[in-house]
Amino acid sequence: EAVFTIRGLSKIYQTGNVEVKALRGVDADLFHGELTVMLGPSGSGKSTFLNIIGGLDTATTGEVRYRDHDLSSASDRELTRYRRDHVGFVFQFYNLIPSLTARENVALVTEISRNAMRPEEALELVGLKERIGHFPAQLSGGEQQRVAIARAVAKRPEVMLCDEPTGALDSKTGILVLDALTATNKELGTTTAIITHNATIGSIADRVFHFSDGAITEVIENETRLKPS
Ligand code: ADP
Ligand code: ADP
């Protein structure tokens, strides 16, 4: 079942009189409960694609559907509501509030959303049960990123979008962060998309999109990964 249906998606950035074609007519589907990984060189359009399906940016032309919502014609107000109710974001930098503990950082989200988990539950899901009372400065980079993941999943979004979540981490720590993301994908059935340069993740993805020069040039399906029911 397709959660996102993308057809002919183009994005042109205009800076002064310079035009950059970030996406050139992309067709793609993202499926319910799947983990999709986006690979490709810097500047190939991965972040632009993720930002558009996350409602952080809009298409220049083309169709972007999330279930029965047409994101390509949505107003700013509708996109804000869409992000709030349906999407969890994880970025390279964690954006935790330094004066709040791990638990309190997650509680900022859980206190304002209706169907949220308890902060303890979200932190346990990412393997940080023992760290709930720690402040960001007392946590390693990988642990801080896992708090950010807990914060994103705590509201039980249907969709998780992650832009280089391991970009600031060494590869060993990065694997722990990717493990936390695959765990939330499996346990919550969240439709997940991850941009990463970490080569290990290809094997755990359901689907890999290869980006090149504003296009998806190859889609590889992983037949061996057990599908969530
Ligand atoms: P990737 O995530 O694969 O590194 P991006 O989607 O960030 O690629 O960028 C695709 C192209 O669009 C690049 O040429 C980049 O410089 C350009 N671009 C991205 N964001 C903007 C922006 N806000 N304004 C102008 N150009 C941009
Ligand atoms: P709200 O639900 O309050 O409207 P937004 O829709 O602005 O929040 O953003 C959704 C989520 O994405 C929030 O968690 C916000 O912190 C995060 N976010 C949005 N844009 C960026 C960005 N450029 N860098 C980092 N985080 C961002």
Automatic annotation (TrEMBL):
One Pfam family in the UniProt entry: ABC_tran
One Gene Ontology cellular component: membrane protein complex
Keyword Hydrolase: no
Superkingdom as given in the UniProt entry: Bacteria
Domain ABC transporter: 4-229
GO molecular function per UniProt: ATP binding; ATP hydrolysis activity; transmembrane transporter activity
Keyword match Cytoplasm: no
InterPro entries named among the record's database cross-references: AAA+_ATPase, ABC_transporter-like_ATP-bd, ABC_transporter-like_CS, MacB-like_ATP-bd, P-loop_NTPase
PROSITE patterns with a match to the protein in the record: ABC_TRANSPORTER_1, ABC_TRANSPORTER_2
Keywords linked to the UniProt accession: ATP-binding, Cell inner membrane, Cell membrane, Membrane, Nucleotide-binding, Translocase, Transport
Family per record: Belongs to the ABC transporter superfamily. Macrolide exporter (TC 3.A.1.122) family.
The protein, known as: Putative ABC transport system ATP-binding protein
Organism: Bauldia litoralis
